[in-house]
Automatic annotation (TrEMBL):
<dbReference type="GO" id="GO:0030170">
    <property type="term" value="F:pyridoxal phosphate binding"/>
</dbReference>
<protein>
    <submittedName>
        <fullName>Aminotransferase DegT</fullName>
    </submittedName>
</protein>
<dbReference type="InterPro" id="IPR015424">
    <property type="entry name" value="PyrdxlP-dep_Trfase"/>
</dbReference>
<dbReference type="GO" id="GO:0000271">
    <property type="term" value="P:polysaccharide biosynthetic process"/>
</dbReference>
<dbReference type="InterPro" id="IPR015422">
    <property type="entry name" value="PyrdxlP-dep_Trfase_small"/>
</dbReference>
<keyword id="KW-0663">Pyridoxal phosphate</keyword>
<comment type="similarity">
    <text>Belongs to the DegT/DnrJ/EryC1 family.</text>
</comment>
<dbReference type="InterPro" id="IPR015421">
    <property type="entry name" value="PyrdxlP-dep_Trfase_major"/>
</dbReference>
<keyword id="KW-0032">Aminotransferase</keyword>
<keyword id="KW-0808">Transferase</keyword>
<dbReference type="InterPro" id="IPR000653">
    <property type="entry name" value="DegT/StrS_aminotransferase"/>
</dbReference>
<feature type="modified residue" description="N6-(pyridoxal phosphate)lysine">
    <location>
        <position position="196"/>
    </location>
</feature>
<dbReference type="Pfam" id="PF01041">
    <property type="entry name" value="DegT_DnrJ_EryC1"/>
</dbReference>
<dbReference type="GO" id="GO:0008483">
    <property type="term" value="F:transaminase activity"/>
</dbReference>
<feature type="active site" description="Proton acceptor">
    <location>
        <position position="196"/>
    </location>
</feature>
Length: 396
């Protein structure tokens, strides 16, 4: 049998994968323009409106509001949509902490709807089963860059009079049935934190097609001002959550490369899907045919049940890392996060812990990630990944 790298054998791969972030003279030029203009932020906006326009167009949205990050983008979008303390918001458990923390930051209660086995995206049947008179909104998360089933979720939201806020932090550029994510629901939120596919160091955006909701969000982000009001006219209680012109400069630069990078990620993901068909014991996540553009912030694959029962997921990660493949274990299911459960208990007086067996099993035993930059490599890189996975799987 071939000796694994973790046991002192030769690793499948010694070369690094493409580094992230990627930038060139365009970002240099745009950043220097901001520097020399003296307009770095505050009331003067020059690059910000352009970044907002480009990003809204990319997602077929009419209105965009830039904010400091993707976490507050969710909290502000929920509040703009009318969600208040004590209201329930249905979220998936297989996502980053912020999806459930954002409602709790202003006293709204996340309720966890389990994900679909095949996609790890929020399961519309589970959502519908959890609706109560207190439910105000659904927050589907387009995890890894794959849109959740927006057709079914919209039908459910319409039937029950609920708002949809799409957490699209990982899905810049993704499309569902030909329409950009973000404004398919009532509002959508994005993150430009440094690991995301569009990177401005930190940053976020809220998109919507609803002018009133856009104005509400804008006010909450701009110290309670109104769009055409005077500088010292404050009509509601709001934060200052504005992005700077430097971040807008980076966004414009990064957006110029998105289409080309998306095409490379999609092509490599297709190849890796094919190669993994020939590896026993693992499968990539399924993609709904209605996902017409997958943003591949993550390439997620699962260990089959028999293999996952034999092999510890952390060990598989360590073995693959030793082979030169930067696989990651990913999330802990948020319905099992103690800080979240504790806060829900404090707010509701009830020790509720939603059970989400699919997400829990994916987190504990099955789901593994490759980060987006790995998909920016070439064909040989994908062959190396498949070969390393085969080597590790065959070692058991
Ligand atoms: C990154 C991320 C966020 C939070 O964005 P920040 O800009 O880091 O605050 C929220 N939801 C998901 C799914 C994310 O991946």
């Amino acid at each position: 049998m071939v000796k694994l790298a973790i046991d002192g054998g030769s690793p499948v791969r010694k070369k690094p994968f493409p580094e992230w972030p990627i930038y060139d003279q365009l970002e240099e030029k745009l950043l220097l323009e901001v520097l020399h203009s003296g307009k770095w932020g505050g009331a003067t906006r020059s690059k910000l409106p352009e970044a907002e326009r480009l990003f809204a167009e990319l997602h077929d949205a009419k209105y965009a509001v830039t904010v400091v990050n993707g976490t507050v983008a969710i909290a502000i979008a929920l509040q703009a949509a009318g969600v208040r303390a004590g209201d329930e918001v249905i979220v998936p458990p297989y996502t980053f902490f912020a999806t459930a923390a954002a409602p709790l930051l202003f006293g709204a209660i996340p309720v966890f709807a389990d994900v679909e086995e095949q996609t790890l995206l929020i399961d519309p049947d589970q959502v519908e089963a959890l609706i109560t008179p207190r439910t105000k909104a659904i927050v589907p998360v387009h995890i890894g860059g794959a849109p959740a089933n927006m057709t079914r979720l919209k039908a459910i939201a319409e039937k029950h009079g609920l708002r949809i806020i799409e957490d699209s932090a990982q899905a810049a550029g993704a499309r569902w049935n030909g329409t950009g994510v973000g404004a398919i629901g009532d509002l959508g939120t994005f993150s430009f934190q440094s690991s995301k596919n569009i990177n401005s160091g930190e940053g976020g955006m809220i998109l919507t097609n609803n002018e009133a909701l856009a104005d509400q969000a804008w006010s909450l982000v701009n110290a309670g001002r109104i769009r055409d009001g005077a500088w010292y006219q404050h009509e509601v209680i709001g934060w200052n959550l504005r992005m700077t012109e430097f971040q807008a400069a980076l966004l414009i630069g990064q957006l110029s490369r998105l289409e080309q990078q998306m095409a490379v990620r999609e092509k490599n993901a297709r190849l890796l899907n094919e190669l993994l068909q020939d590896v026993d014991g693992v499968s990539p996540l399924a993609t709904d045919p209605q996902v017409t553009r997958h943003a591949y912030h993550l390439y997620i694959f699962k260990l089959h049940k028999d293999l996952a029962d034999k092999l510890n997921k952390s060990d598989v990660c360590r073995m693959l890392n030793a082979e030169g493949i930067p696989v990651h274990e990913g999330y802990v299911a948020l319905n099992q996060n103690r800080a979240i459960s504790e806060e829900i208990r404090k707010r509701t007086g009830q020790a509720r812990r939603d059970s989400c067996p699919v997400a829990e099993r994916a987190c504990e035993k099955e789901a593994l990630w490759l980060p987006q930059n790995v998909l920016l490599g070439d064909e040989q890189d994908m062959h190396d990944i498949a070969q390393a996975i085969r080597k590790v799987v065959q070692s058991v």
